[in-house]
Specification:
single chain; mainly alpha; 6 helices
Length: about 160
């Protein structure tokens, strides 16, 4: 029951954050351009959160299907590209999520039009996503998590052998 209570508390905190984000959008003291920027930023945060490693259920619903589809697309070029393409697709989906959250937070939290340092934001997103993907790869490699239910061993061996 404690796990359920913690989950409810996290959902309440997330709800409070989004309530605070949207409460200022409908007040009359901001110009339309600022409101639209905050709406765009809020949408980027939501989509980024769903794609990022911060959302505990996103892998099953979003990232793994995207990664599998990317790997499948790469395997059309060469069957040996399936595993690498799947890993690259997983990394890219996490990277996009982290960058969307960073860009969205900049839109929502910055009160003034300040210049953005996009190369720095991109670098931080790449580093964070790469570190997270390497941790997941280590967990799979050490067989802490078994992926054979998602990618059957015989199918994986077929893609790796190129037959």
């Amino acid at each position: 029951m404690q796990h359920i209570k913690n989950t409810d508390s996290k959902n309440e905190n997330l709800f409070a954050i989004f309530t605070n984000l949207f409460s200022g959008l409908f007040s009359g003291d901001q110009p339309l351009k600022t409101k639209l920027k905050k709406i765009r930023g809020s949408l980027l945060i939501v989509v980024g959160y769903l794609l990022s490693p911060l959302c505990w259920w996103n892998d099953l619903v979003f990232n793994l299907p995207v990664a599998y589809g990317f790997g499948y697309g790469m395997s059309l070029i060469s069957p040996k590209f399936f595993l690498g393409g799947t890993i690259a697709g997983y990394w890219l989906s996490n990277l996009v999520g982290i960058i969307f959250m960073q860009l969205g937070a900049g839109d929502v939290l910055q009160n003034q039009d300040q210049p953005r340092n996009f190369p720095k934001e991109l670098g931080m997103g790449i580093a964070t996503s790469t570190a997270y993907t390497l941790v997941i790869l280590a967990i799979v490699h050490l067989k802490i998590v078994d992926i054979s239910a998602f990618i059957p061993t015989e199918q994986l061996n077929t893609y790796l052998s190129g037959n």
